[in-house]
Design brief:
7-stranded mixed β-sheet, Fructose-1,6-Bisphosphatase, Chain A, domain 1, 33% helix, alpha+beta, D-Maltodextrin-Binding Protein, domain 2
Length: 265
Amino acid sequence: MSEYLDFAIETAREAGAILRAEFDRPKEISYKGEVDIVTESDRRSEELIVSWIREKYPEHGIVAEEGSGTEATNAKFCWHVDPLDGTTNFAHGYPCFAVSMGLAQDGVPIAGVVFNPVTDEMFTAARGEGAFLNGKRIQVSAVDKLAVSLVATGFPTHQRKRSANMNYYWEFTLRTHGVRRDGAAAMDLCSVACGRFDAFWEFGLKSWDTGAGVLLVEEAGGVVTDLHGGPYRLGGPHVLATNGRVHAEVQEVAAIAERSPARLI
């Protein structure tokens, strides 16, 4: 396992160096569809990561956000790569973004890294070996009541008026210490893993958004399911990650939100 993790750490650090060098420069921005931003930095980061994986592990599948991977559904091992999680933040100069690399074996995450090159925070985890931040073991928070919890979520960049998450945001805002929306799911999951957030939920995330983060939460002692408490699979329709202590209470509020009349904007 250490071989895969060491490779991911080195690769993420090199890709992060590209992002850090270009963070303070004018951005070359284009769009996927009407509102999804993609920068040249996304592409350069992904090109490096994909080329390194292909060279080191040519038999592995790759699922990468910008489409340069070689998705192999029959591959025993598959990398789930987000070369720049938090592209909108990056484009606007907001320093909450990361490189995320998760390796799954038969669909189960076994190694993952999330690297924020601005803060120089490297989150790492291998199945059965714990979760770490810059080499120091991390664990989820000890908060056991939702009322004093700090939680996080995210919203899609398109069709926001149709997003069911407006109801959830409303209900959790009323019942927690606060709800944060930082725009980088991989970083949100890392924040659960290290105890900064007590819970995180979101709809419609892709496997590259969660491939590393869900393992970090689990290895830090947290719990990851879907919003109904069922098993979460990479790319599933919704995800819930908590410190475990507030998991049942979060599910109760989620059930209330699901039954509530739609709050559309």
